[in-house]
Amino acid sequence: MHCLVFDIETVPDIDLGRRLHGLEDLADEQVAQIMLAHRRQRTGSEFLSLEQHRIVAISVALRTRETFRVWSLGEPGSTEKELLERFFDGIDKYTPDLVSWNGAAFDLPVVHYRSLLHGVPAPRYWEVGDEDQAFRYNNYLSRFHWRHLDLMDVLSGFQNRGRAALDDIAVLLGLPGKIGMRGSEVWEHYMGGDLPGIRAYCETDVLNTFLIYLRFELVRGRLSPDQYALELTRVRQYLAQQDGEHLKSFLAAWPEEARPV
Predict the structure, then answer these.
(1) Would you say 53 and 12 are in contact if contact means Cβ atoms under 8 Å apart?
(2) What is the largest CA-CA distance in the chain?
(3) How many C-beta atoms surround the C-beta of residue 192 within 10 A?
(4) Is pLDDT of 257 > 80?
(5) Labelling 234: which of 53, 201, 210, 216 has CA 20 to 30 A away?
């Protein structure tokens, strides 16, 4: 079975903000501030409604039967449509089990809206059993199916009051947690032209999610303690062979003694 852990990073959709609020003559930063202010007035929070998010990075960790790797889709200059096409190409190719942290409430709805905008086809992802009977009772779309596992949803018992932040659970388990930046800082880094930094940050979030997923597989009996230890060793060996400074920093911040078996 192939496992694909994913995470997205987003910024305000400035083009949509201009159309929504009639702001054609203002600079991007001003449009973003007005979008946030409108949202704050309506809800008390600056967190934009999901259709107003534009995807600037999609990072994944792929565990196949033979290999493990982490990367960001496309290039820093890739368009949002290209990122989405690559994401769904991977699903078409591998039909993986998807794993996320808050993917059901945030990442995938944003992916849906942006794919609708760009007309990105994804027949395997949207399959519910019409063409493949195996998807009738286990598909990517049903909240209580397991082809997409939202760890935050499952571990909270699908209760809002039980939800926890990825960083908090990572630290709880002795993992590095957030490295380089936080989600609230992505827009600032984007405006500064730091797409490589955003992609690196997204990759470390994916690593935290994958390692939490491994612990979950241990506690639900799908990995034995020995298998779990081998999976952690595989991740460590992979990170040790990579050149990216963010991956080196992640490995350095992940102490050996934090690996219970």
Answers:
(1) yes
(2) 61
(3) 9
(4) no
(5) 201
DSSP structural state of residue 135: G
In the DSSP assignment, the letter for residue 104 is: I
Q: Say which residues have a Cβ less than 8 Å from residue 172's Cβ, sequence separation at least 6.
A: none
Locate 84 and state its tokens.
């989405």
Burial class (CB in 10 A: 0-12, 13-18, 19+), 208: buried
Residue-wise pLDDT tens digits, 14-64: 999 999 999 998 999 999 999 999 999 999 999 999 999 999 999 999 999
With b meaning 16 or more CB within 10 Å and e meaning fewer, what string describes 97-120?
A: bbbbbbbbbbbbebbbbbbeeeeb
Assess whether pLDDT exceeds 70 at residue 221: yes
Q: What is the pLDDT of residue 259?
A: 47
Q: Show the 3-state SS of 162-185.
A: HCCCHHHHHHHCCCCCCCCCCHHH
The pLDDT tens digits for 130-188 are: 999 999 999 999 988 999 999 999 999 999 999 999 999 999 999 999 988 888 899 99
Paired tokens of 185: 């800082």
- What domains sit in the chain, N to C, each tagged with a CATH number? 3-258 (3.30.420.10)
The sheet with strand 68-72 has its strands ordered as 68-72, 53-63, 3-12, 97-100, 148-150
Q: For Cα atoms 16, 118, 86, give the angle at the middle one, nearest 5 degrees.
A: 125
